[in-house]
Amino acid sequence: MIDHEPESPQAAGPTRGVPGPRAPGGRHDVLATADGGAYRSVRRRPSSRKERYAMGRALRGSVPRRLLGDWEPAADRPDPVELLRRSHEGRLPSLIPVRVARMLSSPYGFLRGTAIVMAGDVAGLPATGITPVICGDAHVGNFGFYASPEGELVLDLNDFDEAHPGGWEWDLRRLVASIWVAGRENGASEDECSDAVLSCVAAYRDEVRFLADQPLLMRSYNRLDVERLHETATEKSLRDEIRRSAKRARNRTSDRALPRFTREEQGGRRIVDDPPLITRVGDAEREQIGAALDDYLDTLTPHWSRAVGGYTLVDVAHKVVGVGSVGLRGYVALLEGSSPDDVLFLQLKQARRSVLAPFVHGDSAWHAHQGQRVVEYQQALQTVSDPLLGWTTFGGHPYYVRQFRNMKGTIPLDAVSPAALTDYAGIVGHLLAKGHARTSGASMIAGYAGGSDRLDRAMARFARSYADQTETDHARLVQAARAGELPVDEQALARGSAFRPA
Questions:
Q1: 501 within some domain
Q2: Lowest mean pLDDT among 62-76, 132-146, 221-235, 401-415
Q3: What is the pLDDT of residues 320-350, one digit of tens each?
Q4: Is the residue at 440 inside a domain?
Q5: Is 201 found in the same domain as 340?
Q6: What value does the mean pLDDT take over residues 376-387?
Q7: What's the Cα-to-Cα distance from 292 to each of 194, 242, 349, 353, 391, rounded to whole Å?
Q8: I need a surface site. Which of 144, 195, 303, 383 has the fewest CB within 10 A?
Q9: Which residues span the domain enclosing 232?
């Protein structure tokens, strides 16, 4: 891991302010008892599991679990529209109206696109100081299907642009708030939203406790493939939706994408323009991206570097994806192998500093290359990852690279009943705990969370309050758009759905 390396010669070394119990003046300090230094040497024995459970339980004295349910906006809370403007700095101006439109579609769309707002909010809340690697944007829509290196379809966290060491509570708060917001938009009652959140947190507690008691390597092997997912889901409507979604995901492969995204032209196959969402690049830019992909090969393991190196770049297009990523530079590269039907789509996505980083270690930077940060933390949080994950630099910007079509898919939340949402919330709570336990702090989190439902009820209280806050913030965005404070792409607004990936 490349923690503690500055992004530039001007960047100072990291400060030690990381999420922890709230100290005077709002500073967060890491707990000395949570230090994982022993895990960097096989010659040092870490504290025992029993000791770490006890450390976690002891934290209830300084950070009672009920406090995790508190939410009240600070008197000096920044205007969410102003934070949104700040997040637009460095993005492509022509795509900002598309991003705003996608967030205008609903409060859930707003929540998806404003990790920067929630990061600032949760950074000021009580926290235990237990800091595994976290997703940083663990809303319920960022769990999805993808293919394992063996070609099996698995479900896991599937977005890591904001991944960073941080408080486990930050991820859990974002997840439960998104479940409540999504439930409301899908017609669930407040009691049904509460049931879904309680299911999520209970599953999180159960899984982190289970994994804390397992051998260390076993934590790294635990995964949820589609067959186990069918067994885990108890609600018939959810099992049916899993079956439909998995079938769609299995069809999302490079060869299946050819008719949709490309056409034959004189001189070979080309990506089809669909501005502003898909726009082909010129020859000079394509050549530069080709050179960047050659550099990317060096970040892969030798086998996969040779395998990808056997393909030839034939075309590149700029492609807009997601909500939070809109306006950042992103490309899809079409490569051909041993025949015109042997194709590979690679996606290059610009990587920026995580929105969590300023609240963890201030203005200093821990990562020399933000694309490498995304890749390595993705590999830390996922049980199995895309073997073609790598990174490169192009035009002065860092990128991470991955397969564009490797059976990616999601379960559309607008297609599930309230009972199915409760069932699914338990599944994603289980997956979030698995990711956290793979990195550090499982025994301490389990000791703190305990066996009662106190944490569940606290998080349900937080989720409801923050869902209210999200609706208020979304209304502020709508007001700003109507007043002309922000540009809006009306076509994107008309066709947008917050529940389905763009």
A1: no
A2: 221-235
A3: 876 667 778 999 999 999 988 899 999 999 9
A4: yes
A5: no
A6: 95
A7: 48, 37, 12, 20, 9
A8: 303
A9: 17-246+410-495
Q: Are strands 268-271 and 262-265 parallel, antiparallel or unpaired?
A: antiparallel
Q: 214 and 272 share a domain?
A: no
Q: Is residue 128 part of a domain?
A: yes
Which tokens is 177 given?
A: 């708030």
| Domain-terminating residue out of 388, 403, 418 | 403
Kindly state whether residues 297 and 344 are assigned to the same domain.
Answer: yes
Do the bridges between strand 28-29 and strand 153-157 make them parallel or antiparallel, or are there none, so unpaired? unpaired
Kind and range of the H or E run holding 438: helix 418-439
Residues near 144 by Cβ (< 8 Å), separated by ≥ 6? 155, 156, 158, 408, 409, 410, 411, 501
Say which amino acid occupies 62: S
Q: Looking at the structure, do residues 276 and 350 belong to the same domain, yes or no?
A: yes
| Chain centre to alpha carbon of residue 434 | 14
Residues 95 and 56 in one domain: yes
Residue 449, pLDDT score: 98
**Position 500 in a domain:** no
Final residue belonging to a domain, choices 403, 431, 460: 403
How many angstroms separate the CA atoms of 484 and 394, rounded? 34
**Phi, psi (rounded to 5 degrees) for 15:** -80, 170
- The Cα–Cα gap between 437 and 367 comes to 22
CA 294 to chain centre: 27
State whether 271 and 391 are in the same domain: yes
Contact by Cβ (8 Å): 320, 330: yes
| One-letter amino acid of 340 | P
326: CB partners within 8 A, 6+ apart: 91, 95, 96, 98, 99, 102, 113, 320, 502
Clarify whether residues 196 and 58 are in a common domain. Answer: yes
Tell me the two tokens of residue 140.
């319920």
221, 305: one domain = no
Q: What is the DSSP letter of 384?
A: S
Each residue of 93-151: pLDDT tens digit?
888 888 899 899 999 999 999 999 999 999 999 999 999 999 999 999 999 998 888 88
- List pLDDT tens digits, range 11-39: 222 233 333 333 333 333 333 444 456 56
**Look-up: residue for tokens 């569940």?**
456
Question: At which residue do the structure tokens 């237990």 appear?
Answer: 130
- List of residues 6+ apart from 41 with CB closer than 8 A: none
Q: What is the number of structural domains in the chain?
A: 2
* C-alpha–C-alpha distance, residues 464 and 68, integer Å: 13
Query: What residues are paired with 409 via a beta bridge?
Result: 145
Tens of pLDDT along 198-250? 999 999 999 999 999 998 888 888 877 766 776 677 788 888 888 888 888 88
Sign of CA dihedral 459, 460, 466, 467: positive
